[in-house]
Amino acid sequence: MTTYSLIRVLLIDDHRQVHQAISTILATVDDIELVGQGSNGLEGINLCVELKPDLVLMDVVMPVMDGVAATAVIHEQFPNIKILVLSSFQDHESVYAMLRNGAAGYVTKSALTHELVDTIRTTQKGQVVLSPEVAERLWQQDPIPKVERFHLTDRELEVLVLMAGGQTMNQIAQELVISPSTVKFHINNILAKLSVKTRSEALIVAAKNNLV
Fold first, then answer.
1. Which of 69, 106, 158, 173 is deepest in the core (most CB within 10 A)?
2. What predicted TM-score, i.e. pTM, was given to this entire model?
3. Would you place residue 204 in the very low, low, confident or very high pLDDT band (cuts 50, 70, 90)?
4. Residue 50 burial by CB count (10 A; 0-12/13-18/19+): exposed, middle or buried?
5. What is the pLDDT of residue 147?
6. Which CATH number characterizes residue 58's domain?
7. Could you tell me if residue 1 is inside a domain?
8. Are 59 and 17 in contact (CB under 8 A)?
9. In which order are the strands placed within the sheet that holds 82-87?
10. 199: domain range?
11. DSSP-derived 3-state class of residue 58
12. Rounded Cα–Cα distance for residues 184 and 173 (Å)
């Protein structure tokens, strides 16, 4: 049986029913702990300071501060915290706004089943997760033009493939027998060549263009 390290989750959503549903789902597993709950983005930031969770489940539209703004602040202040967007919104503008601000994945609230447990585990491993509804919306958009593999070098493509596999910077360094600083250099080049700001965006662009 596969074992997992304990994943400490913070939930930020302004709907009581969502809190109840997620609390019920996560109470059925031993490797995920719901350590805190909030109802707006500002509370989410403050709870991240206090609780330092591994992963945040973040709604998009909330009072006081929305999820787009809160994600940007949390990602900047706590880059190791994974943010999984949980929303009923499926338009690609919302998806890209959250991914640009550092979200690691985006699922719709129709996924509030026990599949959420696997989604949390996958996100915590560093992989990009999109619900089928969101992925379909993204794939329906006009594809980004292919320009000689975006001028990515063979080494940059190797790094990109390992990123898509959910490996961390240190794991990529070990795999390729190079230093973490060199991996960071390659990742920065990849982001620049793909015209994106985050790893999540890079992996979506790469998948849409058959680079990984």
1. 106
2. 0.71
3. confident
4. exposed
5. 47
6. 3.40.50.2300
7. no
8. no
9. 32-38, 7-12, 55-58, 82-87, 105-108, 129-130
10. 148-208
11. strand
12. 9
